[in-house]
Specification:
By secondary structure, the chain is of the alpha+beta class. It contains two helices and five strands, in the order βαβββαβ. The structure holds iron/sulfur cluster. Its cofactor is [4Fe-4S] cluster.
Length: about 70
């Protein structure tokens, strides 16, 4: 299991994470990416997707910690 977080203060709203891992990240009314409710802890395929998004985020504001 790994914990997924987005630092909304750093997020530049380019939607890369929501496009890369739409089952884990969503854009909300504040214009920022958020972890979808219930997806804060991921494993297996979802963990891989979260890591892909973490690597793709241009400002490194996604953290995936095991
Ligand atoms: S990829 Fe990073 S900067 Fe882009 S929307 Fe997601 S969290 Fe924000």
């Amino acid at each position: 299991m790994a914990h997924v977080e987005v630092d909304q203060d750093t997020c530049i709203s380019d939607q890369v994470c929501a496009a890369t891992a739409p089952e884990i990240f969503e854009m909300r009314d504040d214009g920022k990416a958020h972890v979808i409710e219930g997806k804060e802890e991921v494993e297996g395929e979802e963990l891989e997707m979260a890591r892909e998004a973490e690597a793709a985020c241009p400002v490194d504001c996604i953290t995936v910690e095991e």
